[in-house]
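Hi R.,

As promised on Friday, here is the backbone we talked about, encoded as structure tokens. Could you run it through your design pipeline when you get a chance and send me back a sequence?
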């Protein structure tokens, strides 16, 4: 995946301003305003038209599309795909004991475990809070199966690899969860289900926006 950050150089900003004020205007006239030859601006014109800041018509020249830089940033953010940012899921079998689940959760340093059956099919979710409740209840955690305390399907909020990271963030906020299992449809032993192929967490979202802030990642169509 090739990615770019839609960020204008000072010269590109000047070009956009000239076109806003004087467009439609041909490339030679823009170059005259900037005191350079047209060939010097070839790469700038290509970038600005490809990015959608400017339009171009033969024998007419360049014109301003009306889009703002902020709009381009929003559009680029919305094109970030879950599949490009998802982390490896941490799963345990539905027959595992609560004690094993706790060990897995802390050794993997995650906030949520995904409970799966054969074939990696999602059956449930267990959070730190769920595990803390059972421990504080002084139950024998080495004898209680994790599937007794898990949240079961279909009461689990999921996300697809092809969905946008923006959608994942919306779901995390709306449902007040720490993470989402990334799933895809699967048929295992004549049974339809959802296979866990990744996870998206609050940390995932934060990391993506940190990269954006560093002017590194904006997906190019």
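Update: got your reply. Pasting your designed sequence below so it's all in one thread:
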């Amino acid at each position: 995946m090739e990615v770019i950050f839609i960020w204008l150089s000072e010269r590109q900003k000047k070009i956009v301003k000239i076109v806003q004020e004087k467009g439609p205007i041909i490339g030679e006239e823009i170059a005259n305003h900037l005191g350079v030859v047209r060939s010097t601006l070839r790469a700038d014109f290509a970038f600005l038209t490809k990015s959608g800041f400017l339009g171009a018509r033969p024998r007419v020249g360049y014109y301003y599309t009306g889009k703002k830089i902020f709009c381009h940033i929003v559009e680029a953010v919305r094109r970030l795909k879950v599949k490009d940012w998802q982390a490896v899921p941490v799963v345990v079998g539905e027959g595992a004991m609560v004690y094993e689940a706790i060990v897995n959760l802390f050794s993997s340093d995650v906030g949520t475990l995904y409970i799966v059956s054969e074939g990696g099919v999602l059956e449930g979710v267990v959070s730190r809070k769920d595990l803390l409740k059972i421990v504080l209840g002084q139950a024998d955690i080495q004898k209680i199966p994790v599937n007794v305390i898990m949240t079961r399907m279909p009461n689990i909020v999921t996300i697809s690899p092809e969905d946008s990271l923006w959608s994942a963030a919306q779901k995390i906020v709306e449902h007040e969860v720490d993470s989402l299992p990334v799933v895809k449809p699967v048929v295992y032993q004549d049974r339809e289900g959802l296979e866990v192929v990744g996870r998206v967490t609050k940390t995932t979202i934060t990391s993506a926006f940190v990269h954006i802030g560093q002017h590194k990642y904006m997906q190019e169509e």
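One thing I noticed while checking it: The chain has two domains: 10-76, 82-211.

Thanks again,
M.
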